[in-house]
Design a protein that fits this description.
Layout (H helix, E strand, L loop, with lengths): L1 H29 L4 H8 L1 E6 L8 E2 L5 E2 L1 H13 L2 E6 L2 H9 L5 E7 L2 H4 L3 E2 L4 E10 L14 E5 L3 H7 L5 E5 L2 H9 L5 E5 H10 L2 E3 L5 E9 L4 H16 L2 H9 L3
Parallel strand pairs: 1-4, 1-5, 8-9, 8-10
Antiparallel strand pairs: 2-3, 5-12, 6-12, 7-10, 7-11, 7-12
Helix pairs in contact: 3-9, 3-10
């Protein structure tokens, strides 16, 4: 009798184990994939960028998106084990695209600020920058105060646009990209453009512009990631650390002459 009971108990335990394993497998199959899981499964990460910001992102003569941010993004993608796919869009559309899942990340010289942090997450900063004033080379303007009662151009949705609001008695003209802004400056429609220092120096090297020495502020630049995607953010942060540590980061900076 005891032997039969023991056999029954063992059989019941075996059946329960099989059923439990089966349920666990079903639960695992039903488990929703994270965004990073989907990226790895697809083998591709989509990155929103506005290619009008040399040397960080621009379009070369062959129609390719190139720049410091682009090369860094490709190295980050390698560390994640996937391919980088860049999606060109207006700068002010990138955060919305990331929030809605149209792109996995946004990388377009995004300055970190508290307002943006309310709706998206940032990777760890990968470069420091500043907002500066770009003027024509023969302009009499030497400081921010000289812009009173003048017009300045800024790109929509940028921290340059925010910095311009702090200037006293200045008419701020918002445009879609800096190609338009620099045309306005060159044609005398505005007396200055407010933008990142690296881009300002690049434009000054190719046009009859100069950069005022005193910056309007100091900022950190980072990658835009949708809120809640902690595994993706951590993996990107780890990738940035590795790229900075092994020399690739400095090579990319040298290639694009980014200080």
């Amino acid at each position: 009798m005891k032997k039969n009971i023991m056999k029954f108990a063992v059989s019941a335990l075996v059946i329960a184990g099989v059923l439990f394993a089966g349920c666990s497998k079903k639960e695992e199959d039903k488990k929703e994939l994270t965004q990073f899981d989907k990226i790895k499964k697809k083998g591709q990460i989509t990155i929103g960028t506005s290619p009008d910001y040399p040397p960080f992102e621009s379009i070369d003569d062959d129609g390719n998106i190139v720049g410091f941010d682009i090369d860094l993004a490709k190295e980050i993608a390698k560390e994640l084990g996937v391919e980088a796919k860049f999606v060109s869009m207006g700068f002010d559309s990138i955060i919305t695209a990331v929030k809605n899942g149209q792109t996995d990340m946004g990388m377009s010289s995004f300055s970190v600020n508290e307002e943006r942090k309310m709706s998206i997450d940032f990777s760890k900063p990968y470069i420091s920058t500043a907002q500066v004033i770009l003027v024509n080379k023969d302009s009499a303007i030497t400081k921010a105060e000289d812009l009173e009662k003048s017009s300045v151009a800024v790109q929509m949705g940028t921290t340059g646009a925010e910095a311009a609001k702090e200037l006293k008695d200045v008419d701020v003209k918002t445009v879609e990209d800096y190609n338009v802004a620099t045309m306005m400056l060159d044609n005398g429609v505005v007396r200055a453009v407010i933008l990142d220092i690296a881009i300002a120096k690049e434009l000054a090297s190719r046009h009859s512009f100069r950069v005022l020495e005193t910056p309007l502020n100091q900022e950190e630049t980072a990658i835009v990631i949708r809120k809640g995607n902690d595994d993706l953010k951590q993996s990107v942060d780890n990738a940035i650390d590795k790229i900075m540590a092994d020399g690739r980061y400095d090579q990319i900076k040298t290639k694009w002459d980014v200080k």
